[in-house]
């Protein structure tokens, strides 16, 4: 049995919806090991709603400042300063973020050891900040290290096997209640569609294919999960889709649906982890994780909207052959700079 060290103070920052999912079991494992954990969260997408849904106590700090490069730079400076002011008197031993530039900069200013994690290597502007300022960079082992060396990650990489989704979904069991919550017909096929990450720097263009997919699926039983209020308003104007008003149990919805189409990344990989058929309409440069999933036939890259076929699949719910990985490994990798055990 590993000898455990004395409790340390850990700071976790959540800036986007997927970060809540990824770091939830990390926070729980840190608590289970007897460490003190405080969480900050940004008001963006469904981040705060998901914190509430999962019972993660948090301090709300900052908001998203816009999609432009100048807006992002101002937002980074402003929120990093806010975080530093908040964190200074708390004397943390370790800071952890999922691609959060804000906590990396704030931790660097305060000389707090910091770990960052992500699974898409081509967000180079973001990674040039995180990889250079953090002490540990935790990524999937399918990402070639040399892709991150140019961002300053040499000597800092800590790699893990499989998908991050296989770790944070390790204790997940799907609940069919979400089907009734959304008023869906269980007997008819269900599609789940995730909108493009329109405010991301690595995806700065309109996705025509995504719009064509929406048109093709119009009239079917389709749940669309928007990222921003602007996307929600546009979907309301178009009409013809189920658009949840608040954060829902999206993982259960994916487990029970018949098709997933996403212009992002996390939901695609959740579908793979949960055994749902999934297409990607991401138009940016593919990362190593998606390249591997496509090569294995677990993820399909959509070329034309008419390739989409929504039919009822035979097996739904929890796949018997699901891969479940222990999130304690992620905690060990992320906590290295502070020697947390």
The Cα radius of gyration reads: 20 Å
Q: Structural class per helix/strand content? A: alpha/beta
Mean pLDDT score, rounded? 91
In this structure, how is the largest beta sheet organized?
A: 7 strands, parallel
Strand content: 15-25%
> What global shape is seen?
globular
Question: Number of helical segments?
Answer: 14
Low-pLDDT regions: 201-205
Helical percent range?
25-40%
Q: What is the spatial order of strands in the main beta sheet?
A: 3-2-1-4-5-6-7
**Topology order in helix (H) and strand (E) letters:** EHEHEHEHEHEHEHHEHEHHEHEHEH
Distance between the termini: 11 Å
Which oligomeric form is depicted?
A: single chain
What's the total number of strands? Answer: 12
Topology:
Elements lengths: L8 E6 L2 H16 L3 E8 L3 H7 L5 E5 L5 H19 L6 E4 L3 H10 L3 E4 L6 H10 L2 E5 L5 H4 L7 E4 L3 H5 L8 H5 L9 E4 L13 H10 L4 E4 L3 H10 L11 H7 L2 E4 L3 H9 L3 E3 L7 H8 L4 E2 L26 H7 L7
Parallel strand pairs: 1-2, 1-4, 2-3, 4-5, 5-6, 6-7, 8-9, 8-10, 10-11, 11-12
């Amino acid at each position: 049995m590993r000898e455990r060290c004395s409790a340390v103070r850990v700071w976790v920052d959540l800036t986007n919806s997927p970060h809540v999912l990824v770091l939830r079991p990390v926070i729980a494992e840190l608590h289970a090991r007897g460490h003190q954990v405080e969480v900050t969260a940004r008001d963006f997408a469904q981040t705060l709603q998901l914190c509430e849904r999962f019972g993660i106590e948090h301090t709300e700090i900052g908001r998203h400042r816009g999609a432009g490069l100048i807006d992002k730079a101002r937002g980074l400076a402003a929120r990093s300063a806010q975080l530093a002011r908040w964190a200074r008197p708390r004397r943390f031993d370790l800071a952890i973020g999922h691609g959060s530039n804000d906590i990396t900069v704030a931790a660097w200013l305060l000389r707090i050891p910091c770990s960052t994690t992500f699974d898409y290597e081509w967000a180079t502007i973001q990674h040039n900040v995180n990889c250079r300022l953090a002490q540990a960079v935790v990524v999937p082992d399918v990402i070639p290290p040399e892709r991150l060396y140019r961002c300053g990650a040499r000597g800092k990489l800590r790699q893990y096997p499989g998908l991050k989704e296989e770790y944070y979904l390790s204790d997940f069991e799907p609940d069919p209640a979400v089907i009734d919550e959304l008023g869906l017909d269980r007997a008819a096929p269900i599609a789940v569609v995730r909108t493009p990450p329109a405010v991301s720097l690595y995806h700065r263009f309109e996705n025509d294919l995504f719009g064509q997919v929406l048109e093709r699926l119009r009239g079917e039983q389709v749940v669309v999960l928007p990222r921003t209020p602007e996307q929600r308003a546009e979907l309301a104007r178009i009409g013809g889709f189920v658009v949840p008003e608040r954060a829902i149990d999206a993982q259960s919805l994916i487990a029970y649906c018949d098709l997933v189409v996403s212009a992002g990344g996390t939901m695609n990989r959740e579908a793979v982890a949960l055994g749902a058929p999934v297409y990607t309409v991401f138009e940016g440069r593919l990362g190593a994780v998606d390249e591997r999933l496509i090569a294995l036939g677990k993820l399909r890259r959509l070329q034309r909207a008419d390739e989409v076929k929504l039919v009822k699949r035979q097996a739904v719910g929890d796949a018997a052959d699901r891969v479940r990985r222990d999130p304690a490994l992620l905690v060990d990798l992320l906590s290295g700079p502070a020697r947390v055990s």
